Amino acid sequence: MSYNIIKKSEFDKVKSFNGNWAAKMQLFADMCRYNTLVAVKKAGSGHLGSSLSALDITTYLYLNELNIFEVGLDSPDRDIYFSSKGHDVPGLYSLFYALGILPEQKLLMLRRLHGLDGHPETRIPGIEASTGSLGMGISKGKGMAWAKSYRKNKGHVYVLTGDGEFQEGQIWESLQAAAHQKIGNLTAIMDHNKYQTDMLVADVNNIEDVVNKVSSFHWHVVRINGHDYNELKKTFTELKNVKDKPKMIVADTVKGKGVSFMERPETETFEGKTLYKWHSGAPDDESYVKGLNELTGKINSLAEELKIGKIEIPVNEPEGKVSSKGEKEFVTEAYGDALCEIAKTNDKLVVLDGDLSADCKLRKFEKMYPDRFIENGIAEQDMVSMAGGLAKMGLIPVVSTFSSFLAARANEQIYNNAGEQTKVIYTCQFAGMIPAGPGKSHQSVRDISLFGALPNVTIIQPCNAEETKWATEYCVNEAEENCMLRLIIGPSPEKIVLPKDYKFKVGVGVALTEGSDGILFGYGPVMLHEALLAADYLKKINFGLKVVNMPWLNKINKDWLKEIVKDQKKIFVLEDHSAVGGLGDRLLNALVEIGIGPSSSGLSRTTPRHEIEFTNFGLREYPECGTPWEVLAYHKLDGKSLAQRISGFEDIEEKEKIAQKYTEDAPQ
Amino acid sequence: MSYNIIKKSEFDKVKSFNGNWAAKMQLFADMCRYNTLVAVKKAGSGHLGSSLSALDITTYLYLNELNIFEVGLDSPDRDIYFSSKGHDVPGLYSLFYALGILPEQKLLMLRRLHGLDGHPETRIPGIEASTGSLGMGISKGKGMAWAKSYRKNKGHVYVLTGDGEFQEGQIWESLQAAAHQKIGNLTAIMDHNKYQTDMLVADVNNIEDVVNKVSSFHWHVVRINGHDYNELKKTFTELKNVKDKPKMIVADTVKGKGVSFMERPETETFEGKTLYKWHSGAPDDESYVKGLNELTGKINSLAEELKIGKIEIPVNEPEGKVSSKGEKEFVTEAYGDALCEIAKTNDKLVVLDGDLSADCKLRKFEKMYPDRFIENGIAEQDMVSMAGGLAKMGLIPVVSTFSSFLAARANEQIYNNAGEQTKVIYTCQFAGMIPAGPGKSHQSVRDISLFGALPNVTIIQPCNAEETKWATEYCVNEAEENCMLRLIIGPSPEKIVLPKDYKFKVGVGVALTEGSDGILFGYGPVMLHEALLAADYLKKINFGLKVVNMPWLNKINKDWLKEIVKDQKKIFVLEDHSAVGGLGDRLLNALVEIGIGPSSSGLSRTTPRHEIEFTNFGLREYPECGTPWEVLAYHKLDGKSLAQRISGFEDIEEKEKIAQKYTEDAPQ
Question: How high is the mean pLDDT in each 10-residue block of chain B (668 residues)?
Fold first, then answer.
């Protein structure tokens, strides 16, 4: 199986061609589209829909407007372009390859360790801003533009935005302030492809009439066809004359542009709403080949029309890999099912979503209880405060979206709600560092710390489907205070098996293995899987590791703790989180409270010591981007590394054998 | 000295009067204004300007529109009113007193423990939503309105907003989503009094033309005179016919309405901008008497005009208390001065403010370096991302505002910036629980935890002016990563004296007292003051407490720590923060890392123990509202309580004497 892209030399050939300019641009962009498809297919995930819709705009900008090839990528006088929506970066990377900014091997390492992050990162050449969480781009561009004026540097700042992104309040903050501050060297361009995630913006939370809205914020606004190169050229040229205010181009585009079946919405609809299925994820083999063939045909015919000579297009074959995802357990599914079940008997239950219903497995609930499902779009602050209002009126709101956006973006709103002593359930999905492909904007390794200092919240992360059901029921029907339910978004690497007599009870975890050489507290399907692998590995060198599933991340029953750490010399905490502010900190405090310390004083030399070691395997750096296996290994959090860190013992007879087993089990 | 308000019986008299309706409303509102002035003067702080501007609107609503007196304050069919800007609550409390919702003794306990919180709290009768941080109200009202529809309850939801508040992005999120969701039982009213904090909205970050803006978001909008009762009546009546969309009334009002000199902006201007001085704070004696006299005159003449009979207006005298604020040390001033000084030699330094320049002592910088001062208004997310853009272009941005708003509201933006590996300095002012008058929306006791899990941030809280200068210099000129500078906003209770040989060095604190019976780590002027009082107190019972100033809240030098805790049996941490996620957690981890544990195992009965106790005096509940002394005592964090908690010894010979000394020293 190999992945082959159209070589840079072919792009150079097109670039140096002097004929029909617009058609040449089109050809260049379609060649980038071809490479984007290959890169995403190889990565196994990525955002095709908006990569394709934005490519004509970026091709136009890089080949015609930006001065970066004249003044250099590091020049303070350079023009700056970045995408606020970020997830369209596979398209941009392909363009960067075509322009010589990125080498071939990098493009084919999309979403891989030391490759190209799933969302833009400034450590990558040519990337001007790290983005991935929506709504920040115009603000950041405003800062760059201000700095240029202050330092009397040349260059203009161009920020691409999404359309769904205009549901984020920060966009409107930045529009208002940029106009007030008369930032004249800033242009925002909306890639208005009409779909956000998998539904029409107009259905989710309509932003129209956006030209009218943005104009009322005192920006100079024009609306154009974002695929028409002549219109792009004319518009950017004309806008150079508008110098006293920020400018915005609303560019009407087609999501999935260039590949016919990605351009058309699916015939499938949901509750009368059109569904779009090419927002994220790699294409299946058939679509992949079909898409490449279609682009090949276009490229060939355009090249012929232009008389540019034959463009070398490589052959790419389908992968033929059968996805095993269908057989895997998803805690998100158990959660979605549990909500549907609970709703039957609890009519106070209401679910709020932030444009991630499908990923968060809420579609079933949405269908069963349309009158109790509130789709709020990409407006987390509004969603959380709205939930506060619902709770104040006696309902039980469940707020569900990705953890990074919920815990951080709406943090003050969560505090405000909690202060009213009502109950809101915050389901923080995509918690932890896996999947690691999307990069750090999506990997949520601070969320426990962001909820931790609230005096009235219970933080829970279940380890399998069964426990997820219990946790959801507990949150909705039993808990008397706010709950933060932490769920991984992907499939569980394995189904964690809980003891038959295990009862889900506040503050009480459960041992999954026995052992007296060390005890490890972990939580969630991803890290417990690694912990169990570590225990297997350690067993072979006669190190008995007691692995404990501790779903209660900030409530620890002291009697239970005292009993379970009895006679243990080494205590380990395996976080799917930063080492700061997670379970480890709470556990250490609880140990102190029950009179158990990590070691005796160590100060008085005359006192014999009964040492207890305490080690927190939490993250102390930013989570890396890559496959689960790459990233866990990079952070030394995979089963094998953990076994080595726990035992301190590297050279073991069984090493090869275990490593072999591990490789087979590693999550894909 | 006594504080006397106009009695409820007088309000009843007016209410039952059947003559000129509009004049009667006016009279009722002016009587509320009188009581508002008395309540704020007694409290020593509070927001007069917008309490007065909003009073005609609220008087109209409670006396004419809301059904709460018919259906009851707890009825699910009740109409709901609350103020999103919250700080206008002294006016609302006065109205609540006039209407019998609150008793007299409560009104005169504004900003006191077990009295009335400085910002609205739902635990107070009649208060429908806890507010105080801006921008959340329409979202919350939307939730309430949605719940009413879902449960088929009657009643309409009215949300009052500020005008400066329309700089917050969440407002626009909520406007867009409320229109999309067709929330027809919701009306927002803007108390458009033109000033935010102390400057014109038009100067800070202009929101005009707000009618056009909000209309473009598909709301039904009208603009009226918010002091004209006939216009209010007509408008609210007409709006009842608009049922298919949310409605907004932009009510033009005058800040400080009813007291002539509070209505007029000061002649004082700043950089050509008009300054308004009655936004917050109690009036001085002269203004207090003048204001009461003016209102008395108005009330008398209106009563006479209406032939309503004499309204009993009590006599109130000036307090005659001399403020000692001028002599006290403000760390904020040292910070502002330091920035001005550093800017002389570092032209990369740029300061950003979120409409709190005066409180945050940035006016001097603003004046000296207008081209390096960015006033961003009440738009923290935009401000933080803008700072990210500035940093990306090589500048050193210092973002300065209240900690609650900066650390929580812009948390995801802070994470995004930090991920770019640039340096931004976040000055989190109003950190900690004192002053406690404003209530929990402003008391910032989660901010350390909100920054803590960032891998590249240094968190510092200096204890006096000198250390603030060093800390500011360190952040701007030396630090290689992001800094979070934590400052109290009020005067320091005393000037903390640092040893002469103390050097400000990363991770290293300094002992302020010597003692070997226990060591206490504290930080910041407020809590170190209490710690020193505790040490004084303990000294008299021969308990030697070593008080350590530890300004580095997440960086602890291990060698220094080992040395300073040597031979100590009891370790205490005094947080000006929640017990979760503050210095205590980091210190406990550091102790473990250097092999010092709070106790020996406690598990093996045969091992002799050398016990070390570790106690974290952090908050485990929401911070209370009240005077500093009341609140510190309530949380058992005042010097005396601390001495008792540390010694475990309540009945001491010296107790009376010490308590006496303490009372004299307690912050006012």
Answer: 93 95 98 98 96 98 98 97 98 98 96 97 98 97 98 98 98 98 98 95 96 98 98 98 97 97 80 88 95 97 94 91 74 98 98 96 97 97 98 98 98 98 98 97 98 98 98 98 98 97 98 97 98 96 96 98 92 98 97 70 37 89 97 97 91 52 50
A-B contacts at Cβ under 8 angstroms: 405
Q: In whole angstroms, what is the distance from residue B540 CA to residue B186 CA?
A: 62
Residues B143 and B215 in one domain: yes
Contact indicator for B468, B428 with CB cutoff of 8 Å: no
Question: Is the domain of A215 the same as that of A348?
Answer: no
A580 and A440 assigned to the same domain? no
For residues A503 and A514, give the distance between their C-alpha atoms in angstroms, rounded to a whole number: 18
Q: What are phi and psi of B518, to 5 degrees?
A: 180, 155
* A409: containing domain: 331-486
Q: How far is A459 from chain B (nearest CA, A)?
A: 13
Q: Which of B139, B146, B167 lies at the smallest CB-CB distance from A173?
A: B167
Give the ranges where A240-323 is alpha helix by DSSP (H).
Answer: 260-263, 285-306
**Are residues B203 and B149 located together in one domain of the fold?**
yes
How many structural domains comprise chain A? 3
Determine the distance in angstroms separating the CA of B389 from the nearest CA of chain A, rounded to an integer.
4
Q: What is the pTM of this model?
A: 0.96
> Do B378 and B418 reside in the same domain of the chain?
yes
pLDDT at A517 over 90: yes
Q: Could you tell me if A476 and A533 lie in one domain?
A: no
This model of the complex carries an ipTM of 0.96
Q: What DSSP line would sit under B265-285, residue for residue?
A: PPS-EETTEEB---SSSPPPH
CATH number at residue A613: 3.40.50.920
- At position A421, the amino acid (one-letter code) is Q
Chain B partners within 8 Å of A180 (Cβ): 205-206, 377
**Nearest to A584, CA basis, from A574, A596, A599:** A574
pLDDT at A362 over 60: yes
Please state whether beta strands B186-192 and B157-161 pair in parallel, antiparallel, or not at all (unpaired): parallel
Residue B104: inside a domain = yes
Asked whether residue B361 falls in the same domain as residue B418, the answer is yes
Are residue B366 and residue B273 in the same domain, yes or no?
no
Phi and psi at A577, nearest 5°, equal -175, 170
In angstroms, the separation between the Cα of residue B482 and the nearest Cα of chain A is: 14
Contacts (Cβ under 8 Å, ≥6 apart) of A284: none
CATH number of the domain at A393, please.
3.40.50.970
Q: How far apart are CA B427 and CA A562, in angstroms?
A: 42
**Cα separations in angstroms, B605 against A394, B355, B505:** 52, 61, 43
